[in-house]
Amino acid sequence: NAGVTQTPKFQVLKTGQSMTLQCAQDMNHEYMSWYRQDPGMGLRLIHYSVGAGITDQGEVPNGYNVSRSTTEDFPLRLLSAAPSQTSVYFCASSHTGPGLGYEQYFGPGTRLTVT
Amino acid sequence: KNQVEQSPQSLIILEGKNCTLQCNYTVSPFSNLRWYKQDTGRGPVSLTIMTFSENTKSNGRYTATLDADTKQSSLHITASQLSDSASYICVVSASNTDKLIFGTGTRLQVFP
């Protein structure tokens, strides 16, 4: 099993550009989520999905879109990049939502810089 | 407001020594508490997950405790190794949500 994979590992964007961060998992997990990690702050939830075709907003959803057409993939789209979106982005997956105590598996992260 | 607070913010210890990291939370209704280890430049990796009824859980040299009455948890590292240098993150889940609440982490550095 590859676990949770993310691409790219690093990315530099100019303000106003758009891009998609890719996330895939091969564990047949229903629950997938995107977080951003900024210095001095805990990971913050951007969007999450409880299954294919179902997505919902997290704590900081503005400026990001997601879709979940398959169980395996959960891409995160930046619509018009802003310097405030400079961050490290982590994708995670688990069997079901965190309330039931299943382990969450995190990807290696994407370090995004917006200039 | 659901919050998770960790202390200390950073810690330096010598190889072979023990240390204890603290976590206080105000999440309600409580479902479970997790400790993660995050190496620099990598994603968090789960160490332990504890539910309301568990007050101690071990994973090798890592032992987590939970006091659901005082809403406190600790992570004890025994006989530290250089590879223990990382950030340790306390995370709490509420039972009425599909979301996790993350602490800001304790950065541990182990020196030879």
**Quick one: overall form of chain A?**
globular
Instruction: Kindly report the oligomeric state of this protein.
Output: heterodimer
Number of helices of chain B: 0
Low-confidence stretches of chain A: none
User: Rounded to an integer, what's the Rg of chain A over CA atoms?
Assistant: 13 Å
Average predicted local confidence, pLDDT of chain B: 95
For the biggest sheet of chain B, the summary is: 6 strands, mixed
Residue-averaged pLDDT of chain A, rounded? Answer: 95
Largest sheet of chain A: 7 strands, mixed
Structural class of chain B: mainly beta
Alpha plus pi helix count of chain A: 0
Strand content of chain A: over 45%
Number of strands of chain A: 11
Helix content of chain A: under 10%
Please state roughly what percent of the residues of chain B sit in beta strands, choosing from under 5%, 5-15%, 15-25%, 25-35%, 35-45% or over 45%.
Answer: over 45%
Q: Which residues of chain B sit in consecutive blocks of at least 5 with pLDDT less than 50?
A: none
Task: Report the end-to-end length of chain A measured between terminal Cα atoms.
Answer: 36 Å
Largest interface comes to: A-B, 27 and 26 residues
Mind telling me the C-alpha Rg of chain B?
13 Å
Description:
The complex is a heterodimer of chains A (115) and B (112). Chain A has 115 residues and is mainly beta. Chain A is 0% helix and 48% strand. Chain A has no helices and 11 strands. Chain B is globular and about 45 Å long. The interface between A and B is medium-sized, with 27 and 26 residues.
Salient structural properties:
heterodimer, A: 115 residues, mainly beta, seven-stranded mixed β-sheet, four-stranded antiparallel β-sheet, B: 112 residues, six-stranded mixed β-sheet, five-stranded antiparallel β-sheet, 11 strands, globular
Set out the fold topology.
The complex is a heterodimer of chains A (115) and B (112).
Chain A: E1 4-7, E2 10-13, E3 19-25, E4 31-37, E5 44-51, E6 54-57, E7 64-66, E8 76-78, E9 87-94, E10 105-106, E11 110-114
Parallel strand pairs in A: 2-11
Antiparallel strand pairs in A: 1-3, 3-8, 4-5, 4-9, 5-6, 7-8, 9-10, 9-11
Chain B: E1 4-7, E2 10-14, E3 19-25, E4 30-38, E5 45-51, E6 56-59, E7 62-67, E8 72-77, E9 86-94, E10 100-102, E11 106-111
Parallel strand pairs in B: 2-11
Antiparallel strand pairs in B: 1-3, 3-8, 4-5, 4-9, 6-7, 7-8, 9-10, 9-11
